Amino acid sequence: MLHPVQQLLGSDAYIYQFKINAKSAFGGDKWAWHQDYLAWRLADGLPAPRQVNVGVFLDDVTEFNGPVIFLPGSHRNGLVREGRKDTAKSDQHLDPDDISLTTGQLAQLVSRHGMSSPKGPAGSLVFFSPEIVHGSAPNMSPFARRLLIATYNDAANLPQPSGQARPAHVVCRDTEPLLALDVPFSESLEPLTA
Fold first, then answer.
1. Which tens digit of pLDDT belongs to each residue from 159-184?
2. Which superkingdom does the taxonomy of this entry point to (predicted)?
3. pTM (2 decimals)?
4. CA separation (Å) from 78 to 19, 38, 82, 133, 184?
């Protein structure tokens, strides 16, 4: 995944966040319409939207099990500013509801960009901008929908929190640029010895 991330950023990168968004069968909450970068700017003081999210489907994703819905191209105009608050209830945790778009903003953006929901078998990848507007509905199906999200950040775009930095299990402290292996993964493994 690193090579495409470096191509998209045009720079070295490190893992900024790593999380799993799990929606169990007949469960899992909705995620309000939001843009990730606003949360990271508020909570971590990230100077610029120089991140790439990589979503890895851990389960088959269908139209029925609460897939992420994107507004294609909505990232091209940066953050939606009008009527938005640049504060949060907590500097340690931001819920999408804290930074959600209004229904009027969403209706206007949908009329301009439409809506799209990537679907596919487990193992599929989706690369997306930290400024794309996205959200998801609850999972009303009998099929789980788990999504691993690895967020890469430009190695020169380090967090600058105004208060206490969020915990290391939320925001990675190792900001050393990652190096891609030039050999197949299996060749880089050490042989097991008895």
1. 999 889 999 999 999 999 999 877 77
2. Bacteria
3. 0.89
4. 24, 10, 12, 10, 37
